[in-house]
Design a protein that fits this description.
Distance between the termini: 25 Å
Structural class: alpha+beta
Bound molecules: N-(5'-phosphopyridoxyl)-D-alanine
Strand content: 25-35%
Radius of gyration: 19 Å
Largest sheet: 9 strands, mixed
Mean pLDDT: 97
Number of strands: 15
Length: about 280
Amino acid sequence: MSRIAYVNGRYVPHGEASVHVEDRGYQFADGVYEVCEVRGGHLVDARRHLDRLERSLSELRIAMPMERRALELVMRETVAQNRVRDGIVYLQITRGVARRDHAFPPAGTQPSIVITARNHDLGKLEQGASDGIAVVSVPENRWARVDIKSVGLLPNVLAKQAAREAGAKEAWFVDANGFVTEGSSTNAWIVTRDGAVVTRPADFGILRGITRTVLLEVLADHGLKLEERPFTMEEAYAAREAFITSATQFVTPVVRVDGKPIGNGAPGLIASALRRDYHDHAEFA
Ligand code: PDD
């Protein structure tokens, strides 16, 4: 079956889907994106993803290209046209096409919108969760507004590639004070020796992950102790468990950090239970 992409009002074959060379997303990374999970053909936590999308857009003063309800309909239609059951829908909005000039384009320039959808490689995802993944640390070198889900992801790209070259699946950024901020495309968590679950506060310095937000509810439901505070790499090395969260990875256990085994070097009980129960707390639409 051939893939279909939604580009500025039209559903087109994926191979022919394109944006203009002077799209500001292409020239300046002047745009934002969202990745929303699809499970059993339903959008997962679409309300929260669209809330965050609207926030990212408003922080950058980019207009919503269409009504929110219409946007949700197009997301669903893209999922349906691509016959996605368990996968993701990707949505990107940029400040539009205009003659290259760093300052904002003329008023009335239409934002560009692209939506794609595809199935997960479920076997690979499950394998990652049952084996656990390795993480390496890299220096934090991103701009201060990583709370905005901007398509400007060059430091994240380089960090992920550094992880890959080290035989790991994710890289954790470490700030100038020695604290972990987050992963290149996931939020970072540890479980301490006395069973507290630790993750960095989402006020600034990280993206407020939707999976992270939902997981806070799961933790409360399990009666687990949460410490929302920054943690160091030394704490990570000494942790009983570690894991990452995102719309594409859900909760995935981390078993090695910078080559050192975490806990007994196998996926932890808490991370595994949180992965199992996460979707019970997510919203399906
Ligand atoms: N990444 N931190 C960063 C830097 C991210 O890029 C992401 C998501 C997250 C987790 O957010 P959420 O739980 O809402 O997916 C945290 C997406 C999946 C991506 O870039 O593919």
